[in-house]
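Backbone geometry:
***
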Amino acid sequence: MRSPAFLDMETEMSEEKELTMPKHVAIILDGNGRWAKAKGMPRNYGHAQGAKTVEVICEEAYKMGIEYLTVYAFSTENWSRPKSEVDALMTLLRNYMKTCLKTAEKNRMCVRVIGEKSRLDEDIRNRIAELEEATKDNDGLHFTIAINYGSRDEITRAVRKLAAWVAEGKLQAEEITEEMISETLDTGGLPEPDLLIRTCNEQRVSNFLLWQLAYTEFYFTPVAWPDFTKEELIRAVEAYNRRNRKYGGLKEE
């Protein structure tokens, strides 16, 4: 005879199977500092706990059938934070690169880092390159981390690249298409997000994937990122399943 706990687990699994999984989920990781402050701890404690949550959600997302996961880890605007916090975030990033490599080897995760890397310290750039090279052929979750990323900066760099090609005679201006612009962005080759999640009750995109989010469904939750769990991810996917995605056209309700 099956135990009640087993029956509850079986029911939960059945409900998950009935959901249509978004192929690509993007997440703005918000609330680490506020979460830590509410517990009487320094902001850096919240960032460290948030990094652990990233590991958990990567694993759970892939188990649920999500193929691509992109997280906003450090924006171009985050440099304006106090130097002590930025330094602590960079140290956390260094450590996370090592942890992520081990996790990727275990779960066959393919990792990619987007953003303007030139401002990062050389050792961080080297660790990013090592991580991307070591995981490029993995066939598990496609995990993208946005570091020193700002969408306006990304679009500006893409426009400059296309303009240089035109100036060099490699491309005619009238040949530029939306598809070409998409491929020139940092996210070239990735599908556009189906679902964007932002935690800690903030309801804005904060210069994240402005081009790529054209037809993405948005989900906002009051839960701070360190408290975000598999159950919260399921709630977001359930909300996504209730949306009627029209892509600018008409679709029967």
The longest strand covers residues 68-75. Residues 1-16 have pLDDT under 50 and may be disordered. The longest helix spans residues 83-107. The CA atoms of residues 64 and 105 lie 19 Å apart.
